[in-house]
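Section handout 9: paired folding examples.
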Amino acid sequence: MRKSRSHGVTLVELLVVVSILGIVALVAIPDFSSSNPQTLDLAAEEFANAMRCARSEALRTGEPRGFRQPHDKKRIRVFRPDTGTSPSTLNYDVFHPVSKQLYDIRLNTHPFAYADSIDHTFNYRASCNQPGNIHFDRNGIPRCTDPENVFLEQFEVTLKLGAHKRVVTLHGITGRVTIQ
């Protein structure tokens, strides 16, 4: 009878397998560098999803919810306005439905989404004191936060990355959010 010996793996075999796995990973995983337009697409989706979440939460709860996108900041936050104060106090206590973290998207620290610059434009039906703060009423209609009786006609966030550009548009009255 022969004694069977178990054979281990040599260092050379292990290095070959690790090298092959590294090459496969480089080919299979997309490049998420800051010059890749896919990072801009993800940034636009994050901003659009924050707007959609604020609207759907307002419709679901029957209470106003909104978002804040400060001018020239690579950030969007979802809030719950306290309408008992004038002007409304913004409470940033709305949680992301998937991550269960506060709904606060910061592109400077996001692992996959990025934009070189962000700018927004807006049209209201009257004067708005805080144009970057938009909330949805219980019917999902976008309004100015201060004063809250001013309806939004259109809000656009333009995200740029090199020669690439994406525009996230919130349409007034309907509350529809599109990306171009």
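Moving on to protein 2 of 2.
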Amino acid sequence: MLRDSQLLQSLQMFPFDLHGQPICIYGDPAYFLRIHLQALFHNSVFTPQMQSYNAAMSKVRFAVGWLFEDVINLFKFLDLKKI
């Protein structure tokens, strides 16, 4: 789905927002990490910054998961697992 969306190609063409900040998306650790595709750190030794990043991104991931659940509950036909 990521490849089909061409999102990474778009991010390579337009890598910064209007304020000059780099743009990236947060993805599953199964993807190869790139400048514009980030995931949790999976090292055996974590710096305090790595721990803070993982904690902050985990909170966002749960919030997005809840939103997906709300969408599926509102639009039952989108739940492909039940087809």
